[in-house]
Amino acid sequence: MRLAAAELVESRQILPAQWIQSFHAPELATGSRAGQFVHVRTGDCTGLVLRRPFSLNTADPASGTITIHFRTIGRGTAWLTRLRPGDTLDMLGPLGRPFEVDPRSRHLLLVAGGLGIAGLRMLVDEAIRDGRQVVLLFGAASARDVYPSSLLPDEVEYVVATEDGSLGQAGRVTDLVPAYEAWADQAFACGPQPMLAALARLAAGRRERLGVATLGRKRGGGKQDPLGSPAARRKSFLQVSMEQNMGCAVGACLGCVVMGVSGQPQRVCREGPVFAAEEIAWEGGW
Ligand code: FES
Asked: What would be the CATH architecture of the domain defined by 2-95?
């Protein structure tokens, strides 16, 4: 974790109320992994200085740049949109635990609901770099909220569902999953909690439905890896990136907890934001 001065390089609105900003921050661009986030000090018109968490949307060590993707939902994010190239702000990161991809996984299924794409976008780049095939399923309310395909690498198969049927398949993004679950070696998701819970239910019943297609004998097969360990997460079919309001973002305030299956609260900022689906008590109503 480092505290870095990040200089704004480019700011652009990509969708209604959604922005992508690019910052020169070599300390953060190097060594960050998909799934991690930065805690950004923002200002607002009242003079309050607060930090906001943002997923690392992309990171390019060669140019030393990172991007964040956000929706304007309050004074802090509105303040960000008024920054101009050359302005600097301080960012703490990279924070949290990343996605864990099994080295043998060739086919990755990524499922994004709305702004959840921000939590998965960097995994697209990492997977393509490592020679994996990627299908990205994206769900939105209508065509006006659909993430532009021009912002994705050509190698990605991009499939869209909209609830009003104005683009892609009519319905929810979870409706698209059954067509790909036999193809996928692993799945990764970010989006609203009900979407993640629905995906967790699908993943839990997958072995029975498919008569199971696994990757074969796992390294260290037979040995139980501790729940929540990187090794256990790598063996999980579904990993989810959780979105919670955060205070400290470093594990101290307990303002971001979700309930784990063991009955132990899980801090999204420390044990997460990425979890294996089976670590979470989805019906817990946190
Ligand atoms: S935000 Fe404080 S413990 Fe997670």
From this structure: Beta Barrel (2.40)
